[in-house]
Design a protein that fits this description.
Structural class: mainly alpha
Largest sheet: none
Shape: flat
Radius of gyration: 24 Å
């Protein structure tokens, strides 16, 4: 990876991206997909089929509502299983606080167009 970063400057990479942008605007589907992959990301799940959506609507089911409500329903139905939730949340909170203290903030470059990796 170091050799790649030495061989390809940020200016070079910027030209590649600019070329892909121009190609995408010109109708190049491959350039558009490549840019979208980095700008938007690939979807992690599949969208439900139209038939699935229609069946859910006819049944009055809403998967999003069900997923959001499940933890609350479980907490009410099975309180003994959740008696330590506050304790676990406290531990998570303390660990998150420690991580914030230990992780150095990301330094920003005033002019990213002229910055090169490895320059100090």
């Amino acid at each position: 990876m170091g050799a790649l970063l030495d061989a390809v400057s940020l200016a070079d990479w910027r030209e590649v991206v600019q070329g892909a942008l121009e190609d995408a605007k010109g109708g190049d589907a491959q350039a558009r997909n490549w840019l979208a992959q980095y700008l938007i990301g690939k979807p992690e799940g599949k969208a439900p089929t139209p038939l699935t959506v229609v069946v859910q609507q006819l049944n009055g089911a809403d998967p999003v509502v069900n997923r959001l409500a499940k933890p609350l329903i479980d907490r009410q139905q099975f309180p003994s299983l959740h008696q330590n939730d506050d304790w676990a949340d406290g531990i998570r909170s303390r660990i998150a606080s420690e991580l914030v203290e230990k992780i150095k903030p990301v330094e920003t470059v005033p002019n990213p167009a002229t910055a090169r990796p490895g320059e100090d």
